[in-house]
Amino acid sequence: MEILAFGVQSDEKPLIEKAFEGKNDVRCLDVFLNEDTAPIAAGYEIISTSVNATLNNHVLQTLAAGGTQMIAQRSTGFNNIDLQVAERLGLTVARVSYYSPYSVAEFAWTLAMAVNRRIVRASTRTRDFDFRLAGLMGRDMRGRTVGVLGTGKIGEAFTRIAHGFGMNLLGWDVVENPACVELGMKYVDKEQLFTESDLISLHVPLLPATEHLVDSTALRAMKDDAVLVNSSRGGLVDTKALVTELRAGRFTGIGLDVYEAEAGLFFLDKSLDVVDDDTLARLVTFPNVLVTSHQAYYTVDAVGQIIDTTLHNVLDYLEGRRSENVLVPSAPAKPSAPAATS
Predict the structure, then answer these.
(1) In this protein, which residues make up the domain named D-isomer specific 2-hydroxyacid dehydrogenase catalytic (predicted)?
(2) In CATH, what class is 2-99+299-328?
(3) Distance from the Cα of residue 6 to its chain's centroid
(4) For this structure, is 12 an active site residue?
(5) Which pLDDT score is estimated for 336?
(6) pLDDT in tens, 46-85
(7) For the residues of 40-54, what is the DSSP string, one character each?
């Protein structure tokens, strides 16, 4: 059987092909799954999608009509998939429940330190042989307070690094993590966390309850010299409200690896296009803002785990097994469909 994989980056392709070698054929496409590209999947029983795929009602209807029966998403988050429609159409949906939390936690700290110590500005200057220090002053992290919103596996890994810096630890989550408590974390309500933290990092999933978790009220409550990092999901931050606060000259630094309207932009080369997203265009002009293109997970370790889990999800589907990765249960096992032709 040939499996169709959408949104495959050039670095990912050899890893995917090697993982599936001898088990199933896989056709890798660099285009993302959306309403325009969904017809490409016609004839493929199994497809694999990336985190920026669009799997709304229209796309899922197109996939089902074309014979797709299983969707293996190569990410932990699944807010881009209409699971109710998938279930109604009888589509099996699986995700990657776990991969290296260190990849994201370490990158979140990379963003935090980069904006705190003005690394991008310093690098740009030295390329022009400008070696002045004016405007590059940062702050020690030791003794300052970090607020971690979401203390699951990634939040815990981030907290361990913060503990190594010698920081005061504040946490917010629906359930306390004993490992974080052991490190000295104090769990507080999010209002206190926003008010008291010098550095805030987001590690919660995007759900209806967490959309715009960092809204205008939260932003106004934060210290004027705070650092905010988001390496989770763009929709956690009200970006327009953030721009308003930045225009008022607030915050030491903002590090964003995600953006709430990133679909159709991130992972693509838009350098020769006119980007009509006024909010993003304004955001990247601030000297204390660093935006990266959803790359926190992008290490050989994490991507390797994601691909291995995706392979196991496909094999589980084909052999009628079910794991914790299944979001929409499999229908009874059916004989494999013939490979699609291209």
Answers:
(1) 8-327
(2) alpha beta
(3) 17
(4) no
(5) 40
(6) 999 998 899 999 999 999 999 999 999 999 888 899 999 9
(7) GGTT-SEEEE-TT--
In the prediction, which pLDDT does 265 show? 87
Nearest Cα neighbor of 148 from 198, 191, 202, 81 is: 202
Half-sphere exposure of 340 (CA within 13 A, CB side): 20
Q: Is 156 a residue whose pLDDT tops 50?
A: yes
CA of 324: how far to CAs of 21, 76, 93, 95, in Å? 25, 12, 11, 9
**DSSP structure string for 98-157:** ---HHHHHHHHHHHHHHHHTTHHHHHHHHHTT----TT------TTSEEEEE--SHHHHH
Q: Which two tokens stand for residue 84?
A: 């109710």
Q: What is the pLDDT of residue 331?
A: 53
Strand partners, 71: 47, 93
Query: Would you say 295 and 307 are in contact if contact means Cβ atoms under 8 Å apart?
Result: no
Question: Over the stretch 204-241, which tens digit does the pLDDT of each residue have?
Answer: 999 999 999 999 999 999 999 999 999 999 999 999 99
Of residues 334 and 7, more confidence is placed in 7
Q: Give yes or no: 233 in active site.
A: yes
Q: What percent of the chain has pLDDT over 70?
A: 96
Residue 113 pLDDT exceeds 60: yes
- Looking at 294, 312, 319, 321, which residue is catalytic? 294
Catalytic residue from among 74, 144, 233, 250: 233
- Is there a catalytic annotation at residue 262? yes
- Which one from 2, 45, 196, 262 is the annotated catalytic residue? 262
Specify the fold of 101-291. Rossmann fold (3.40.50)
pLDDT, residue 79, reads 86
β-pair partners for 127: none
- Where in the chain do CATH 3.40.50.720 domains reside? 2-99+299-328, 101-291
- DSSP bridge partners of 289: 254
